[in-house]
Specification:
Helix 1 runs antiparallel to helix 8 and helix 7 runs antiparallel to helix 8 (about 200-225). This protein has helices spanning about 20-30, 35-40, 60-65, 80-90, 145-150, 155-160, 190-200, 200-225, and strands at about 45-50, 70-75, 100-105, 120, 135-140, 160-165. Strands 2-1-5-3-6-4 form a six-stranded parallel β-sheet, with helices on both faces. The chain contains eight helices and six strands. It is an alpha/beta fold. The protein has a domain at about 45-165 and about 180-200. The two termini are about 25 Å apart. Helix 3 (about 60-65) links the parallel strand 1 (about 45-50) and strand 2.
Length: about 230
């Protein structure tokens, strides 16, 4: 339970906000598509340890859909090193013998154009002559201020390949406030969905976003009903 709120045993969201019906429909729709490549993409989400406790956190939704997601909870007040990152993965049974290249999904507006370490990619996965390399995605899950802070104080993150969402998409994450004048800031769920949509997985991205909209509508309606009780 979170406080006095009983949790759904399957999704661990409060029962009143349980998205299991939508998740089941969403997964069935994904299985009807050619998702073999999707399930083979390693995805790591570096998560603010306080964010995991938020009742509207969207990474839990992603974890219900993508079994291959690894979540690395940590304190965002300190930088993350490559050693810490790799050791955390190995503790979660990530294969040690795989040659991995990681790409960070991060907004270009935060980047320093004069920093030569930023290797921006136009598409993921990127072309390579090495057949044995496996490519994975990293996302940062925390409020916008904390995510920015973690990035700028972590050389490890700056040294990664970078991938930015190219399109301009409205966020449907209306159950939480975005920074002032930043209505287009996306939740982590949306960031991953639009990343896939723009990188060879358009139908999958569309299915994910449609499912997200339905879940958010349920949550907003619940909040409206409670505010009028």
């Amino acid at each position: 339970m979170i406080g006095s709120r009983p949790l759904c045993p399957l999704c661990q969201y409060p029962i009143l906000r349980c998205p299991c019906t939508h998740i089941t429909t969403l997964k069935n729709q994904l299985n009807e598509l050619n998702t073999s490549t999707l399930w083979n993409i390693p995805i790591v989400i570096i998560q603010d340890h306080k964010e995991a406790l938020h009742p509207y956190n969207t990474v839990k939704l992603l974890k219900l859909i993508f079994p291959q997601i690894w979540i690395l909870p940590r304190d965002f007040n300190a930088p993350i090193s490559s050693d810490e990152f790799l050791n955390s993965l190995y503790k979660q049974q990530f294969p040690k013998d795989e040659l991995m290249v990681w790409t960070l999904v991060f907004p270009k507006l935060y980047l320093n154009a004069n920093d030569v370490r930023h290797k921006s990619l136009e598409k993921f996965p990127f072309s390579t002559d090495h057949k044995n390399i496996r490519q994975g995605l990293i996302l940062i899950d925390g409020n916008w201020k904390k995510a920015k802070k973690l990035y700028f104080q972590s050389s490890f993150l700056k040294d990664l390949n970078h991938l930015e969402i190219q399109g301009s998409y409205p966020s449907h994450y209306a159950v939480r406030k975005s920074p002032k004048h930043k209505e287009d800031f996306l939740s982590t769920y949306e960031a991953l969905s639009y990343t896939l949509k723009e990188n060879h997985q358009e139908k999958i991205g569309d299915v994910l976003i449609l499912g997200f909209q339905k879940i958010m509508n349920d949550w907003k309606n619940l909040s409206f009903e409670k505010s009028n009780e």
